[in-house]
Amino acid sequence: MAAEALAAEAVASRLARQEEDIRWLWAEVHRLRDEQLNAPDRCQAEGPCLTREVAQLRAENRELRHRLYRLRLCLAEELSHQARLESAARAEAGREAAGAQASNLLPFVVIGMSCLLFPFVCQPPPSQSPEEDVKKEIDPDNEVKNPPNFMKERLKFFEILKKDHQLLLAISEKKGDTSNVITVRVADGRIVKGEAWKTTPYQVAAEISQELAETTVVAKVNGELWDLDRPLEGDATVELLTFEDEEAQAVYWHSSAHILGEALELHYGGLLCCSPPGGGGFHYNVYLEDRAVSSAELPVLQSMCQAIIKEQQPFERLEVSTEVLLDLFKYDKFKCRILKEKVATPTTTVYRCGPLVELCKGPHIRHTGNIKVIKIFKNSLAYWADNPEMEMLQRVYGVSFPDEQQMAAWEELQEEARARDHRTIGKEQHHQRNFKEVLSPNMYSCKLWEASGHWQHYSENMFTFDIDKDTFALKPMNCPGHCLMFAHRPRSWREMPIRLADFGVLHRNEPSGALSGLTCVRRFQQDDAHIFCTVGQIEEEIKGCLQFLQSVYSTFGFSFQLNLSTRPENFLGKTELWDEAEKIDVEIKDALGRYHQCATIQLDFQLPIRFNLTYVSKDGDDKKNPVIIHQAILGSVERMIAILSENYGGKWPFWLSPRQVMVIPVGPTCEKYALQISSDFFEEGFMADVDLDRGCTLNNKIRNAQLAQYNFIFVVGEKEETNNAVNVRTRDNKIHGEISVISTIDKLKNLKQSRTLNAEEEF
Ligand SMILES: [Zn+2]
Ligand SMILES: [Zn+2]
């Protein structure tokens, strides 16, 4: 037994030396390749010679790999023989049968032959000169200094599994029968002979044409998507799908996701979480615990992906029992979660490319070199299973294509989509008074209300509830949300004043005893606006507010008075700041001489400080606080409607009226014409109705329409029909007589536009 162990040790040490050689050769190949890439001039002069050198080194490398492979098989045999003897001895000694397990693990724990074929994770050999050190730093291939430990272990494990698989295959081949010939029917009708468990779809394609073999992305075998290098298992119908095929596209992008996954693992050492397919391109989720992916890192990831593509790493498929996979992925709680919760079959597949071994159903492209152009362009947050209660993940997006033109077309489309983004277009729409209408959320976390001070002083009036682990509240006002909008990017004095207007729904928990019709409600909307300006702009902006007020209220026919308010009882902030803040409450006087408090114009120095709002001033000071002017002209829209209804006593001015026109036919023969007139006026934008009640006299109909406060009543008979006209009277029974339809529409349009309070007389 001691002799057996010695033999194994000898093989292992030979192996280690070979490994060292290969590492060195690999580094040489890289160095020469880089030299060639970095010095195109020199390359022209010495190119052919260098290329020869590289080719020769590669050939040597291949040869060494081959020898290594044979040594490895030899070693495995030695070790398993030894293990068998050991376990037999143990069994004899009457020990428990746990030894059988050890024999599975034993052989490969011993030797550090991890990553020969996968130089990406190898530590670079000791550098020869200082220049080389410098070069390494800029070489993306050497970006990764310390790949995570689990990668090495995992790769070792994978190689063991792969070898087991190969041995099994070899054994079954030896004792298998000779009738292994299968018939492969290609989609175009061609029939090819092959060998079961040997012939691959790639070989089938290559037999037809090498070009076809190279452009095929994935195969479909008996209707099932199939890796191009996965041997056929019996007679089969084979379809060869190129990138134009949607299913192939999905495989292409899915395979690109593995490349991104490999880069993410190498760069961050995080845990990869499955990447659901969807949309154009691909993305990958990665769990980084307490770190986030920054968009500044995307170019690094992209160049790592490009390096992986250059390596032409093959995708290797293995079918493994769930039990073993739990061991393979024991470092990764997410994989274990999937294996325990999602995998119902006794075995499932893993795929390897480069140092990445990923739990995946496949299929994939043949090797990473099939991806021609790749772009990593976006990152965002995600949650495990899209559930915010679960772990937060980082998501990185990419897209890839078989050629540059398709990438260029994709980029053009993205550009177009950006230009058409409604958010961009929305920003370009302006109101007459230069307010930007914005929409802000209806509820916010209490953290925001704590920052604004509402939580401390106003929370009893807010509707609150729990979401996830946070307390949220429906907004009672828009100011804090608008402060967030101001703060979302740096601001300059050049863009001031910034005027935001919001008709968002507000909720205030008023005492139930105070609720009354529309004047005091718990859910309402305001014409709420916030002007962010500099101290120097205050006067001009307040003037603008007052002019706005004047123009709206005079349109309604209100007179108003202005009151300067002192601070409220529950005031926010320091006294001295309130002394600087002025609040103008505006009271309007209605038709009965009653005063109503509606509009507010309030100067606020406090909120910008609470939210730490700043802008860069003209002289470069980037810590300047803006001033906020809170402005509501109508105040609560609901309350304003109540005030207007009472003010007009139901006699709404024509431009505001919900009942502008009533059409009345003089008899049944004119009903059709009356309907026509009503629909003509409706289409011109007026609120028009028609009275077809035959049980009512003409006079009664006119009377009813007047009581319902229709501004205008059109009576139509045969004469009006012949002349294409209407006979016009008003709700106050002023008779304007027969007027052509065209001219009536014209007059009403003008009256509506002028917002006159006296349309019935001015007609
Ligand atoms: Zn996959
Ligand atoms: Zn406000």
Automatic annotation (TrEMBL):
<dbReference type="Pfam" id="PF07973">
    <property type="entry name" value="tRNA_SAD"/>
</dbReference>
<dbReference type="InterPro" id="IPR002314">
    <property type="entry name" value="aa-tRNA-synt_IIb"/>
</dbReference>
<dbReference type="InterPro" id="IPR004154">
    <property type="entry name" value="Anticodon-bd"/>
</dbReference>
<keyword id="KW-0030">Aminoacyl-tRNA synthetase</keyword>
<dbReference type="InterPro" id="IPR033728">
    <property type="entry name" value="ThrRS_core"/>
</dbReference>
<dbReference type="InterPro" id="IPR018163">
    <property type="entry name" value="Thr/Ala-tRNA-synth_IIc_edit"/>
</dbReference>
<dbReference type="Pfam" id="PF00587">
    <property type="entry name" value="tRNA-synt_2b"/>
</dbReference>
<feature type="domain" description="Aminoacyl-transfer RNA synthetases class-II family profile">
    <location>
        <begin position="432"/>
        <end position="653"/>
    </location>
</feature>
<dbReference type="GO" id="GO:0006435">
    <property type="term" value="P:threonyl-tRNA aminoacylation"/>
</dbReference>
<dbReference type="Pfam" id="PF02824">
    <property type="entry name" value="TGS"/>
</dbReference>
<comment type="similarity">
    <text>Belongs to the class-II aminoacyl-tRNA synthetase family.</text>
</comment>
<keyword id="KW-0547">Nucleotide-binding</keyword>
<dbReference type="InterPro" id="IPR004095">
    <property type="entry name" value="TGS"/>
</dbReference>
<dbReference type="InterPro" id="IPR012676">
    <property type="entry name" value="TGS-like"/>
</dbReference>
<keyword id="KW-0862">Zinc</keyword>
<dbReference type="InterPro" id="IPR002320">
    <property type="entry name" value="Thr-tRNA-ligase_IIa"/>
</dbReference>
<keyword id="KW-0479">Metal-binding</keyword>
<keyword id="KW-0648">Protein biosynthesis</keyword>
<keyword id="KW-0067">ATP-binding</keyword>
<dbReference type="InterPro" id="IPR006195">
    <property type="entry name" value="aa-tRNA-synth_II"/>
</dbReference>
<keyword id="KW-0436">Ligase</keyword>
<dbReference type="InterPro" id="IPR012947">
    <property type="entry name" value="tRNA_SAD"/>
</dbReference>
<protein>
    <recommendedName>
        <fullName>threonine--tRNA ligase</fullName>
        <ecNumber>6.1.1.3</ecNumber>
    </recommendedName>
</protein>
<dbReference type="GO" id="GO:0046872">
    <property type="term" value="F:metal ion binding"/>
</dbReference>
<dbReference type="InterPro" id="IPR047246">
    <property type="entry name" value="ThrRS_anticodon"/>
</dbReference>
<dbReference type="GO" id="GO:0005524">
    <property type="term" value="F:ATP binding"/>
</dbReference>
<dbReference type="InterPro" id="IPR045864">
    <property type="entry name" value="aa-tRNA-synth_II/BPL/LPL"/>
</dbReference>
<dbReference type="InterPro" id="IPR012675">
    <property type="entry name" value="Beta-grasp_dom_sf"/>
</dbReference>
<feature type="domain" description="TGS">
    <location>
        <begin position="177"/>
        <end position="242"/>
    </location>
</feature>
<keyword id="KW-0007">Acetylation</keyword>
<dbReference type="GO" id="GO:0004829">
    <property type="term" value="F:threonine-tRNA ligase activity"/>
</dbReference>
<dbReference type="Pfam" id="PF03129">
    <property type="entry name" value="HGTP_anticodon"/>
</dbReference>
<dbReference type="GO" id="GO:0005739">
    <property type="term" value="C:mitochondrion"/>
</dbReference>
<dbReference type="InterPro" id="IPR036621">
    <property type="entry name" value="Anticodon-bd_dom_sf"/>
</dbReference>
